[in-house]
Amino acid sequence: MNRNIVVLLSVRVIANFADSFYFLASVWYVKDMTDSSFWVGVTTFVAMVPVAFQVLYGPLIDRYDKKKLLLWAMAVQATVFTILASLYVIDELSVGVVIVGLFVATLASELSYPTEYALVPTLVREADLQKVNALFTFTYHSLDILCNAIAGILLALIGVGLVYTSNAILYLFLFGGIGFLLRINETKGHTPSDFPYFADLQFGFRYVWKLGSFRTLILVFTCLNFMISISLGVLPILATKEQEYGLWLAAISIGTLLGSGLSIRFGVRYDGHSSWQPDSVESLGASRHFG
């Protein structure tokens, strides 16, 4: 693998750990402070909503420098966790601030995922593209198991404040790594002003709407993901300790990984072509986020 791929893969590994740490820490902090299933549910919901916004990021990723988008994503997350850690130290960290911070950080995180995947084809030869994509997919999903389990143990050992502090440091480190080590020469076919953002977005929605029965499949799995998200919101209530919550999430990640493997092994034929929809099949195991 070339250096750019190694850098991008390293960023994804570290970011996976950081994502698990701050999600689990935020949900558990809200549970400790409120002991309310309602507020725990709100916190979990807020962490899931940005996943739906990925569809809005597509035109942005196509129109703007991808390296700068990654830098912005890391900078936003580093800033959020610096603020949360500082407020925790002075004992001024409220539940509302945690929920807002979690929402903003997750928005930034959801921008980094598709941006990284969009960068991969520009960094490798076409002959190596399938292998590298498979490596990123496997790393992304398999790490969830380890990240979620470790996050629960780490939270129990060092507490919320140090988790937020370590996250701020990790994202600053990632910001520097992307800025200094990732070398990309992007060639743009058009400038952001060539095609209005909403026109691009509308074109994307129209394309999906014309997919016929595949459109129905997307809607079905969207509803399925929604129902699974409800069950995810119950986990913090069922868990009595941080470690237990981390193990619950790790179990969900195992389901996600198995779903990914099954989708490759038993991918159905759709109109004469292999139709593999990872997020759809994986939704049988879990929602996309949390890792």
CATH homology superfamily: MFS general substrate transporter like domains
CATH-defined architecture: Up-down Bundle
Q: Mind telling me the C-alpha Rg? A: 19 Å
Helix percent band: over 70%
Mean pLDDT: 78
Query: What's the helix count?
Result: 10
**Roughly how many Å apart are the termini?**
24 Å
Strand order, largest beta sheet: 1-2
Structural class: mainly alpha
**Uncertain spans:** 268-291
Q: Which class in CATH terms?
A: Mainly Alpha
Q: Could you give the order of the helices and strands? A: HHHHHHHHHEEH
Largest sheet entry: 2 strands, antiparallel
> How many strand segments?
2
**Beta-sheet strand percentage?**
under 5%
Question: How many structural units, i.e. domains?
Answer: 1
Quaternary organization: single chain
Describe the structure.
- By secondary structure, the protein is mainly alpha-helical.
- It has one domain (3-184, 197-282): MFS general substrate transporter like domains (Growth Hormone, Chain: A), CATH 1.20.1250.
- The protein is 81% helix and 1% strand.
- A two-stranded antiparallel ribbon has the order 1-2.
- The chain starts with a helix and ends in a 9-residue tail after the last helix.
- 33% of the residues are buried.
